[in-house]
Amino acid sequence: MLEEKSDLQVPYFELFRSVAAFILDVDGVLTDGSLLITNSFDQLRTMNIRDGYALQLAVKKGFLVIVITGANSPGVVQRLNGLGILYVLANVQDKKSALLQIINALNIDLSKTMYIGDDIPDLEVMQLCGVTCCPQDAAPEIIAISKYISPYNGGKGCVRDILEKVMKLQDKWI
Question: d(Cα 20, Cα 39) in Å, to the nearest integer?
Fold first, then answer.
Protein backbone atom coordinates (compact mmCIF):
# COMPACT_ATOMS: atom_id res chain seq x y z
CA MET A 1 0.00 0.00 0.00
CA LEU A 2 2.87 2.40 0.63
CA GLU A 3 3.78 2.33 -3.04
CA GLU A 4 0.37 3.83 -3.87
CA LYS A 5 1.27 7.23 -2.38
CA SER A 6 -0.57 10.23 -3.73
CA ASP A 7 0.23 13.86 -3.03
CA LEU A 8 -2.55 13.92 -0.40
CA GLN A 9 -0.99 11.03 1.54
CA VAL A 10 2.51 12.46 1.92
CA PRO A 11 1.76 14.61 4.99
CA TYR A 12 0.51 11.69 7.09
CA PHE A 13 3.48 9.60 6.05
CA GLU A 14 5.73 12.24 7.54
CA LEU A 15 3.66 12.36 10.74
CA PHE A 16 3.83 8.57 11.06
CA ARG A 17 7.65 8.61 11.13
CA SER A 18 7.74 10.21 14.60
CA VAL A 19 5.19 7.95 16.34
CA ALA A 20 6.56 6.18 19.42
CA ALA A 21 3.31 5.26 21.17
CA PHE A 22 -0.09 4.02 20.04
CA ILE A 23 -3.17 4.87 22.10
CA LEU A 24 -6.41 3.18 21.16
CA ASP A 25 -10.05 2.92 22.08
CA VAL A 26 -11.68 -0.52 22.09
CA ASP A 27 -15.31 -0.33 20.95
CA GLY A 28 -15.54 0.84 17.36
CA VAL A 29 -11.77 0.65 16.84
CA LEU A 30 -10.67 -2.83 17.93
CA THR A 31 -14.26 -4.05 17.59
CA ASP A 32 -16.99 -3.21 15.11
CA GLY A 33 -18.94 -1.60 17.93
CA SER A 34 -21.44 -4.43 18.21
CA LEU A 35 -22.28 -6.13 21.50
CA LEU A 36 -23.83 -9.56 21.90
CA ILE A 37 -25.74 -9.57 25.18
CA THR A 38 -26.18 -13.02 26.71
CA ASN A 39 -28.98 -14.12 29.07
CA SER A 40 -26.48 -13.86 31.91
CA PHE A 41 -25.86 -10.20 30.90
CA ASP A 42 -22.34 -10.82 29.60
CA GLN A 43 -21.36 -8.43 26.82
CA LEU A 44 -19.43 -10.23 24.08
CA ARG A 45 -17.30 -8.51 21.43
CA THR A 46 -15.27 -9.70 18.47
CA MET A 47 -11.80 -8.49 17.50
CA ASN A 48 -9.91 -8.87 14.23
CA ILE A 49 -7.01 -11.33 14.47
CA ARG A 50 -4.91 -9.20 12.08
CA ASP A 51 -5.31 -6.18 14.35
CA GLY A 52 -4.03 -8.42 17.15
CA TYR A 53 -1.00 -9.43 15.10
CA ALA A 54 -0.07 -5.80 14.46
CA LEU A 55 -0.53 -4.89 18.13
CA GLN A 56 1.69 -7.69 19.44
CA LEU A 57 4.32 -6.86 16.82
CA ALA A 58 4.26 -3.20 17.81
CA VAL A 59 4.94 -4.17 21.42
CA LYS A 60 7.80 -6.48 20.36
CA LYS A 61 9.31 -3.71 18.22
CA GLY A 62 9.41 -1.33 21.17
CA PHE A 63 6.34 0.82 20.68
CA LEU A 64 4.37 1.75 23.76
CA VAL A 65 0.75 0.63 23.36
CA ILE A 66 -1.95 2.03 25.64
CA VAL A 67 -5.63 1.13 25.45
CA ILE A 68 -8.17 3.44 27.07
CA THR A 69 -11.77 2.26 27.15
CA GLY A 70 -14.96 3.11 28.94
CA ALA A 71 -15.91 -0.56 28.83
CA ASN A 72 -15.36 -2.86 31.76
CA SER A 73 -14.72 -6.27 30.25
CA PRO A 74 -12.28 -8.71 31.86
CA GLY A 75 -12.20 -10.66 28.59
CA VAL A 76 -11.03 -7.59 26.65
CA VAL A 77 -8.34 -6.82 29.23
CA GLN A 78 -7.16 -10.45 29.16
CA ARG A 79 -7.03 -10.50 25.34
CA LEU A 80 -5.02 -7.27 25.19
CA ASN A 81 -2.67 -8.34 28.00
CA GLY A 82 -2.15 -11.59 26.08
CA LEU A 83 -0.91 -9.53 23.13
CA GLY A 84 1.72 -8.01 25.42
CA ILE A 85 -0.09 -4.71 26.06
CA LEU A 86 0.73 -3.72 29.62
CA TYR A 87 -1.38 -0.58 29.84
CA VAL A 88 -5.06 -1.36 29.44
CA LEU A 89 -7.13 1.27 31.20
CA ALA A 90 -10.69 -0.07 31.47
CA ASN A 91 -13.89 1.43 32.85
CA VAL A 92 -12.50 4.93 32.26
CA GLN A 93 -15.03 7.73 32.51
CA ASP A 94 -12.63 10.60 31.70
CA LYS A 95 -10.24 9.56 28.94
CA LYS A 96 -8.41 12.90 28.94
CA SER A 97 -7.47 12.62 32.61
CA ALA A 98 -6.54 8.96 32.21
CA LEU A 99 -4.27 9.79 29.27
CA LEU A 100 -2.56 12.66 31.04
CA GLN A 101 -1.94 10.56 34.15
CA ILE A 102 -0.34 7.69 32.28
CA ILE A 103 1.63 9.93 29.93
CA ASN A 104 3.06 11.83 32.88
CA ALA A 105 3.79 8.62 34.81
CA LEU A 106 5.63 7.14 31.81
CA ASN A 107 7.24 10.45 30.78
CA ILE A 108 5.99 10.24 27.18
CA ASP A 109 6.07 13.15 24.73
CA LEU A 110 2.47 13.65 23.55
CA SER A 111 3.71 14.92 20.19
CA LYS A 112 5.01 11.39 19.49
CA THR A 113 1.73 9.66 20.29
CA MET A 114 -0.89 8.42 17.88
CA TYR A 115 -4.51 8.08 19.02
CA ILE A 116 -6.95 5.88 17.14
CA GLY A 117 -10.54 6.68 18.10
CA ASP A 118 -13.99 6.47 16.60
CA ASP A 119 -16.59 8.39 18.55
CA ILE A 120 -17.37 11.44 20.68
CA PRO A 121 -15.80 10.10 23.93
CA ASP A 122 -12.48 10.12 22.04
CA LEU A 123 -12.77 13.66 20.68
CA GLU A 124 -11.17 15.65 23.49
CA VAL A 125 -8.40 13.16 24.22
CA MET A 126 -7.49 12.79 20.54
CA GLN A 127 -6.81 16.51 20.30
CA LEU A 128 -3.98 16.13 22.82
CA CYS A 129 -2.04 13.61 20.74
CA GLY A 130 0.46 14.21 17.98
CA VAL A 131 -1.28 12.16 15.30
CA THR A 132 -4.99 11.36 15.13
CA CYS A 133 -6.42 8.47 13.15
CA CYS A 134 -9.77 6.73 12.84
CA PRO A 135 -11.60 3.94 11.03
CA GLN A 136 -13.63 4.94 7.99
CA ASP A 137 -16.88 4.38 9.89
CA ALA A 138 -16.00 6.81 12.71
CA ALA A 139 -18.34 9.60 13.77
CA PRO A 140 -18.14 12.69 11.52
CA GLU A 141 -16.64 14.76 14.36
CA ILE A 142 -13.78 12.27 14.69
CA ILE A 143 -13.21 12.08 10.95
CA ALA A 144 -13.01 15.88 10.88
CA ILE A 145 -10.03 15.98 13.29
CA SER A 146 -8.20 12.88 12.02
CA LYS A 147 -4.97 13.23 10.09
CA TYR A 148 -5.49 9.78 8.59
CA ILE A 149 -8.71 7.89 7.96
CA SER A 150 -8.19 4.17 7.43
CA PRO A 151 -10.10 2.68 4.51
CA TYR A 152 -11.16 -0.10 6.93
CA ASN A 153 -13.95 -0.08 9.51
CA GLY A 154 -13.45 -0.49 13.22
CA GLY A 155 -12.90 -4.15 14.11
CA LYS A 156 -12.34 -4.94 10.45
CA GLY A 157 -8.63 -4.22 10.06
CA CYS A 158 -8.27 -0.48 10.62
CA VAL A 159 -5.76 -0.99 13.45
CA ARG A 160 -3.65 -3.32 11.30
CA ASP A 161 -3.76 -0.81 8.45
CA ILE A 162 -2.55 2.07 10.59
CA LEU A 163 0.07 0.21 12.65
CA GLU A 164 1.46 -1.49 9.56
CA LYS A 165 1.94 1.87 7.83
CA VAL A 166 3.76 3.33 10.84
CA MET A 167 6.00 0.30 11.30
CA LYS A 168 6.85 0.06 7.59
CA LEU A 169 7.83 3.73 7.53
CA GLN A 170 10.06 3.15 10.54
CA ASP A 171 11.51 -0.12 9.12
CA LYS A 172 10.01 -2.10 11.98
CA TRP A 173 7.50 -4.23 10.07
CA ILE A 174 8.29 -7.98 10.12
Answer: 42
Beta-bridged to residue 44, according to DSSP, are: 36
Q: Are strands 36-37 and 43-44 parallel, antiparallel or unpaired?
A: antiparallel
Whole-number Cα distances in Å, 89 to 9, 35, 40, 55, 115: 32, 19, 25, 16, 14
pTM equals: 0.92
State how far the Cα of 88 lies from the Cα of 69, in Å rounded to an integer.
Answer: 8
If pLDDT is split at 50, 70 and 90, which confidence band does 104 have? very high
Question: What is the 3-class SS of 43-88, one letter each residue?
Answer: EECCCCHHHHHHHHHHHHCCCEEEEECCCCCHHHHHHHHHCCCCEE
